């Protein structure tokens, strides 16, 4: 089987190297040899350390008729979508790691890939075979809930903050110098990357309508040492979670930092590792853990897809051989969780009463409260609240009101609690 | 697709109920309806709570030509092997949860199932799709090591012993009353069940020769509160592990209780849950966690196999479409690990010197040593050692010598340390 790789970067180079290094094993498993015959790059002058022909002329590769499977590793959304569509229209199988393209065009791609194999295991949680587990391994089940640590960069930063009481900006710089974060970290630390992955998983789990912009997405930039202090004090850890579940017949999807009890197994997932916990009706909870990124890990998933295709396996792209009703997304204001609230205030009489009044008037019921003794000479203090289950709309309203009190010194900060 | 279930017990009833309850979803995923049309039982008078025809005449079911897939849930080894062989010879697909049959006859079954789908996801770790992950998800990789908590009963008992300082016999009784342990718990607590599963996983990972009797298997019956005390003191937990790895070009398989550092993620797997950690060359470590037993969890895996077969997927039974060289097992005496040794002795001059002399003469190097102050009035004390990497043959020899010293009061007890 001849393979063309569109976009030979870190992952593409790993694909080529592993196909060559593990050729005996991969051939035995696939039943035939899988041979990378050509790769495309933008800059032919840059050394990729691979020993196959490279070209900067994608068209010439798309027009070859000796290619059995195309691997798309170019990145972006619309350009790869157009190229992948063109390939699928010719009934040629495609394997991709492109989560952004899938988050926007997953159903269009599903239609195009009706009779053509389309692999995307590498798009979520790197090398962990989570697409396969969810789409095939759990196929007897109604999925009820997915909770994932889906972004290694954010998890690396939060782990360091928890373990070393370091602050966000410093750890981000460290992550960048170690290659764990991009020069522009927006996609990773603002939750966008995780949102793409959550949409993909949810579409397999129960089919959801909606684009990444439609779901609640918050990043980790504003988490401070005070939040870390509180988390430790109350036996929580802080993780950037992707959460997807069924609420009143609708799909509730959200990506945000969350306080989770530190004795949950997903709380132990540290550094750049990813993990996805899935609750189903028959199986209950299962969890999948492994590296979320890296050339070799991602290539491992790409090649698993190639082997599946070589064996002639026919898995409908999103897991449904026949049409199945898709879920609507729940409106964000109707989401209910527990909340942690941090409010910096002037330390004087009546402040706590004013705040708790506002909360009670807006149906926010306090579960716990912490105020540390003031440091000598300081005139302000920080109040920490956790709430019982509350409506997103109500907590937002409360935060707006608090912000306008003259004794509230900063914008109040909130983290959702996931139990 | 018409399904016959040979042996309708707990798992079989769950299969029928889930197929009926999730019919819409399962049909959409499989592309066709999967209908349980008949089940066999030994005793027709016992109510199974299922609404399909049951018979005690297996022959009549095997002779029907309207059955598309047979599910074997009878248990045992030779009888189901003979029946499954008969079905496979007729080129009818089989799905089984029978790990004992697979542990003894996996390669014979592989030969019989060359052109016929044969699913056995349910045979290892209940509902966790670990066969699929290892056989398909990690197919690009050379597997280097598998470490699994593969028996929920033993894990339940050890978890209780660690958490409550309870003793083996009491927790076993509790587990039996809760339905977590059988009246005869031998298979579970003596490591035999885990050994069957470890052989199955290893055969997929790299193909191993050998029967369950050929591998090192130790159970958990002799673990005492003193061992629990030591584990806690040195930040270990005790788990019954199945370990499989490549050592000098041979396969090293062993099942035994092990001391593992309590901050490892697999150390957090408590109660009846299972987990399998897999190290590979491209992906490094990934881990799979979930319920190891139970009717619905196991049925979830059985039905996933049915859906795969309905979709026309063609996965070679043990993952190899072409022949691939199998590994020989390493001789047990050549296995190297670190060890923990507990020796009860008379508390008098020269005892420690004698023991450490024997150890050094047999190339056992001590890593740590603990002796607690003797309780008032007692004339004996317990010595706790851990060793550096040592040969199994040497530690066995040392234990034999120690046992014969007149100042050694009990048979010394050893637990392997897994780092």
From TrEMBL, chains A, B:
Its EC number is 1.1.1.3. GO terms for biological process: methionine biosynthetic process; threonine biosynthetic process. The keyword Signal does not apply. CDD domains: ACT_HSDH-Hom (cd04881). Belongs to the homoserine dehydrogenase family. GO terms for molecular function: homoserine dehydrogenase activity; NADP binding. It comes from Campylobacter ureolyticus ACS-301-V-Sch3b. Keywords: Amino-acid biosynthesis, Methionine biosynthesis, NADP, Oxidoreductase, Threonine biosynthesis. Gene3D superfamilies: 3.30.70.260, Dihydrodipicolinate Reductase, domain 2, NAD(P)-binding Rossmann-like Domain. Residues 340-416 form the ACT domain. The active site is at residue 197. L-homoserine binds at residue 182. It is an enzyme of class 1 (oxidoreductase). This is Homoserine dehydrogenase. The keyword Oxidoreductase applies. Pathway: Amino-acid biosynthesis; L-threonine biosynthesis; L-threonine from L-aspartate: step 3/5; Amino-acid biosynthesis; L-methionine biosynthesis via de novo pathway; L-homoserine from L-aspartate: step 3/3. NADP(+) binds at residues 6-13. NADPH binds at residue 99. It catalyses: L-homoserine + NADP(+) = L-aspartate 4-semialdehyde + NADPH + H(+).
